[in-house]
Amino acid sequence: MKKHLLFLGPPGAGKGTQAALLSEANSYLHLSTGELLRKEIDLGTSLGKQVKDTINKGELVSDQLVLEIVKKNLDKENNGWILDGYPRNLSQVKSLNSVLINLNQTLEIVFYLDIPEEVLIKRLLMRGRKDDNEDTIKTRLKIYKETTEPLIEYYESISLLKYINADRDLKTISTDIKQKMA
C-alpha cells in the first residue's frame, strides 16, 4: 500500500473530500494547504491577514509561505501523508522534491482528478464560500490552467500520475482511487 500521495486537480474537483476520506481510512496525515491557510485566517494572525487579502483577489499565496507550512507538517511522525492542493507549479515541485529528499521520503502516486470545467463552476458556486463567485472562480481556473497543468505532464513523464474521472459519485471515485493504490 502506497503511503505518500498527492492529489492534483482544479478547484472543486473533490481533492479535499477524497483526500480526507482516504486519510481517515488509513490514518494518513492530510495536508490540505487550503485548510492550513484558512486556519491562519481564522486565527487572525498577520500571516492570516496577508493570506486573506491574496485569496480574496483570487490570487495564490506565495510559494515560500506554503512550503514552510508543508515542511513543518511533513516532518511530524506519521503513518503516511496526502498532499492536497500543493504543489501548484513547477517551482513548487522542485522545492517539494528537495524537502522530501532531506526528510528521506518519496512521493509515490499522484492522483489527477479530472473533471469538465462547467461541472466545476456549478460545484464551486453551490459550495457557497465567501470567496466563490463566478469571477473569482474563473480567475482561479485560469491560474490553475496556466500554472498547475504542466505538473500533470511532469508527473506523467516520471510515471507517477494516475487519472481519476472526478465527474462521478463520491463512492465510485473513492473505489477507483483505492484500486489504483494497490
Structure described in brief:
The protein has 182 residues and is α/β, with parallel strands linked by helices. 58% of the residues lie in helices and 13% in strands. The termini are close together.
Explain this structure to me?
The protein has helices spanning 15-26, 33-43, 46-56, 63-74, 90-102, 117-127, 134-147, 149-157, 170-181, and strands at 4-8, 29-32, 81-84, 109-114, 161-165. The chain has 9 helices and 5 strands; from the N terminus they run βαβαααβαβαααβα. The N and C termini lie close together (6 Å). α2 (33-43) crosses α3 and α6 crosses α7. Helix content is 58%, strand content 13%. With 182 residues, it is of the alpha/beta class. The protein is globular, with a radius of gyration of 16 Å.
Short descriptors:
single chain; 182 residues; alpha/beta; Rossmann fold; 5-stranded parallel beta sheet; 9 helices; globular
Q: In DSSP terms, counting alpha (H) and pi (I) runs of 4 or more, how many helices?
A: 9
CATH class, named Alpha Beta
According to CATH, the fold-level topology is Rossmann fold
User: In terms of quaternary structure, what is this?
Assistant: single chain
Largest sheet: 5 strands, parallel
Can you give the mean pLDDT? 90
The fraction of residues assigned to DSSP E strands is: 5-15%
SSE layout:
Elements lengths: L3 E5 L6 H12 L2 E4 H11 L2 H11 L6 H12 L6 E4 L5 H13 L6 E6 L2 H11 L6 H14 L1 H9 L3 E5 L4 H12 L1
Parallel strand pairs: 1-3, 1-4, 2-3, 4-5
